[in-house]
What does this fold into?
Amino acid sequence: MKAQALVFMGAPGAGKGTQARKVATEFAIPHISTGEILREAVAGGAPLGLAAKEKMDAGMLVPDAIMCKIVEERVSREDCRNGFILDGFPRTLGQARFMDEMLQRQDRMRLLVLNLQVEPVLLMKRLTGRRTCPVCGRIYNMFFNPPANDSVCDLDRARLIERADDKEDAIRHRLAAYDRDTSPLIDYYEDRGVLHNVNGSRDPEAIAKELHGFLRTA
Ligand code: AMP
It folds into this structure.
């Protein structure tokens, strides 16, 4: 795979995090999840976290100015020189335009957008069933991929947690924000010829295999 910026797009629950993490390991490039960066800032009590927490818990988007600053800082680091994966960014047209300019400045790094398409009913189950290990970050789903033992991580026995924004009310807001603010990016990237659609309703292993094959020659 050439040095390029890979963007994972898809509604909340589409499996962006799961697939982005696998691709990052396979191709040895950094996985940058803006949601994770924000959650770490919240957990660490950083000023950024304080500004973002309320919006996140309600399932609303954090302002573009904050998000663009975070991404620009992270992507300018040395480990991103040979490419990187963005998971959860851009989420608005403003962020997408900002990223175009940023990539122009970064030696015109090529952009490839992977759009995971998933049926709405399945999205809901994936989100309401999602649990995360606070120690190793492994993601489970109580419907499709439960831990072997009750609510603890198979790897380190830590008690799994449910994200505050995986509660039903917040989920509704997140899906609405996706429809309103993020889905227009599909046309935006399709027009630029950089969009690759992937059927995200399948088993995660099957999706990973297809992505790997596609990216090897991309
Ligand atoms: P995620 O883990 O990607 O689902 O992100 C969790 C939450 O973080 C979102 O619901 C937003 O509140 C916030 N967030 C993450 N990335 C962005 C972004 N690019 N723009 C605005 N808000 C974001």
Notes: The pocket of adenosine monophosphate is lined by residues 12, 34-35, 38, 55-56, 59-62, 67, 88-89, 91, 95, 165, 174 (CB under 6 Å).
